[in-house]
Design brief:
5-stranded antiparallel β-sheet, Beta-Lactamase, Helix Hairpins, 40% helix, 10 helices, alpha+beta
Length: 375
């Protein structure tokens, strides 16, 4: 009788235990903020300072007791900077009067006592759905970048001044020739002179735009403020650009209620803002389309919107359209400085400017200026 085969002993499978991991440490936001090399400041929705990290306290040689609960626009005085930080004071006052709806970056100069540049990043936040909005401000040293940008602006200003005089002379000579000063010219010569005059006008506009940018950035732009009727400024701007609209086969349509209050602004600069926005709309408008200009008032401000029927602004470009030398694809010729000048002139007059757009459905550029106080 055969013996039953012996069963092989069962082999234990190697255990597949998860490798040991380091225990997770709880993240402490306050510790992270205290360790940052840049200054961090947090305010509530009323711009009262609620938190300041160690780096900012050391830079300002202040204590939490001095700063917490202080209105943001009083920060330079509280920190002892005082009159040496007029640019910083002006910008903080602008922030509190025109709160940003998205992240905003600004570089300002201070004297401590040597001159330095600070890059301020302001971002709105909402910690929890039930908690009031506030703002996070980050202060970073940008002295090297500021000095380079200042040298660049100085070069642009000098070069522009040197270019404007000969360009004006060339333009005058071309106009005299076209007017028959040197006798009757052949048709072919007249055509070449007209082409040269058009190119000269474009160069002069570029030079003037560069000079305006240089003046604004250096703080040398002068403003003669007065009570102005917005409808009159819009009408004058439209007249100045109507011939260009006819060339592009684009028409203007306005909506201006009669009860719009006046604004307290500089007439030339206000008309420059409107003209630049209309020119920008023409650059992107297809033939036989309409540019709408609407005026309204709300919360002690006067709002103007310029809407075109062009391709619109891609979401990735929304935050760049007001930067210098920025032009979107499909634009007709321009300097790329018009919108940057608009933003600077609006902000210098205590206003704000922004763009709203759905790609493929045009773009709407809006700006607001404070309404003039009643006499």
């Amino acid at each position: 009788m055969k013996k039953p085969p012996r069963k092989k002993p069962l082999q234990k499978k190697p255990s597949r235990r998860a490798p040991a991991t380091a225990p997770k440490l709880p993240l402490d936001p306050a510790r992270i903020l205290e360790g940052l090399p840049d200054g961090v400041l947090v305010t509530d929705s009323d711009w009262q300072i609620r938190y300041v990290n160690r780096a900012l306290l050391q830079a300002m040689e202040s204590s939490e007791k001095d700063l917490l609960g202080t209105p943001l626009h009083l920060l330079p005085d509280t920190s002892g900077l005082g009159d040496s930080s007029s640019e910083l004071l002006h910008y903080l006052a602008h922030l509190t009067s025109s709160p940003p709806e998205q992240t905003e970056v600004k570089t300002v100069s201070v004297h401590t006592p040597e001159r330095k540049f600070i890059r301020i990043t302001t971002q709105p936040y909402r910690p929890t759905p039930s908690q009031a909005d506030g703002y996070i401000l980050t202060f970073a040293d940008a002295t090297r970048e500021g000095e380079i940008d200042e040298m660049k602006s100085e070069f642009i200003s000098v070069a522009s001044h040197e270019l404007r005089t000969p360009m004006t002379s060339i333009k005058g000579s071309l106009e005299l020739l076209l007017g028959g000063y040197a006798g009757e010219m052949p048709q072919e010569a007249n055509e070449l002179l007209e082409i040269s005059l058009t190119a000269g006008d474009r160069l002069i506009r570029l030079v003037n735009d560069m000079l305006d940018i240089a003046k604004i950035e250096s703080g040398k732009m002068e403003f003669n403020l007065a009570h102005l009727n917005m409808a009159e400024c819009i009408e004058k701007s439209m007249r100045s650009i109507r011939s260009l609209a006819e060339v592009h086969h684009v028409s203007f349509q306005t909506e201006q209620p009669e009860n719009i209050p006046s604004v307290f602004a500089d007439r030339d600069r206000l008309e420059q803002i409107i003209t630049n926005l209309l020119s920008n709309a023409l650059k992107y408008s297809p033939a036989n389309s309409v540019v709408h200009i609407r005026t309204s008032s709300r919360n002690d401000t006067v709002r103007v919107s310029v809407t075109d029927q062009g391709p619109g602004v891609p979401p990735s470009k929304i935050h760049k359209v007001f930067d210098r030398f920025q032009q979107l694809e499909g634009a007709k010729k321009g300097t790329g400085l018009g919108l940057a000048i608009c933003r600077a002139l609006v902000e210098q007059q205590r206003g704000k400017i922004w763009v709203e757009s759905i790609p493929g459905h045009g773009a709407e550029f809006l700006f607001e200026l404070p309404a003039a106080p009643a006499d």
